Amino acid sequence: MSQYLKKAIKDRYISLDEKEEKVVYLPNLKERYLGNPEEKVQLDTFLSLIYDYGYPAHKIKVCEKIQIGSSTREGDIIVYKDDDLKDPFIIIECKKRKVSNSIFEDAINQGFSYAAVSNAEYVWATSGDRDAIFQVWHDTIHERERNKLAQIPKYEADEKRGYKLKRRLQWVLRHPIMSDTLLYAAVMLVTAVIMSRLAVFYDEQIWEFLFSYLRHPEMNFNWIYNGVAMATTIGSLLLGSIFMRSHQFFQFSARRKLFSYLMIATILFLPSWWIGISNSDPTWWDESHFLMLRMKSKIYLWPYLKAVPLQLLALYALIWLLSKMK
Asked: Is the pTM of this model over 0.70?
């Protein structure tokens, strides 16, 4: 059995009878018979969770009941996130050593079925000489390849700065509509930077054109900003149609393509236009402010960045609508 056996007895995590035939898991006072080969693997795994992965013993329960519909099952080991043992984190299914492939696969599927109803984040199937560890993707609960891991996360990882953010980011990247939204938003931001720099580079020519053909007395940099925003919208559609051409966002029939692109361009342009005209700083669009800026393109980029959250909502709604229409 485990190399940690004597240490665990000393630390009062388990106790054994004189013949070492029965073990009592002291955190939840569960008694199990070690004559069953699976129980030996379960004991080794319990001790590994404590000494190899650092999980507190009071957050680990063995032979825990799990409600699936109207029936009650028993999970071999459940590791919880919280001290109240209400929020499952890892589901562990134990099998005896040298178990057949089919039985081991059954253990994996059983672990996933428990994770689905308990909302656990990881599944670990082990036979002592063989391990299969997965991160549970609840939006694709049957995934068994891309979510496979080398080992379960250590307990200390949950306390590290940025770990929870990383887990949320992983969920976002797996969420198809959200990941598509962020991808296209990135295309728009790159396009906005390019268009803003071009507007600064050709600043004199733009003003000469505006004064020659428009001659509006209240003309300021907000006029150029609107042009930058519109050029960004159109440019992002062109770039998107090249780099995301297989995406449903650009899969329109020839008859509907022009109308669809105009509709999308209008919806994406409106938030940036609104931010521009509702700018709370009355001097933002003045020439004196433009001349004071170290990075001249900021006069266009900063208002556009403030419009990004509204554009993200519009993008998400558009991609969701297109997926439903499909």
From this structure: no
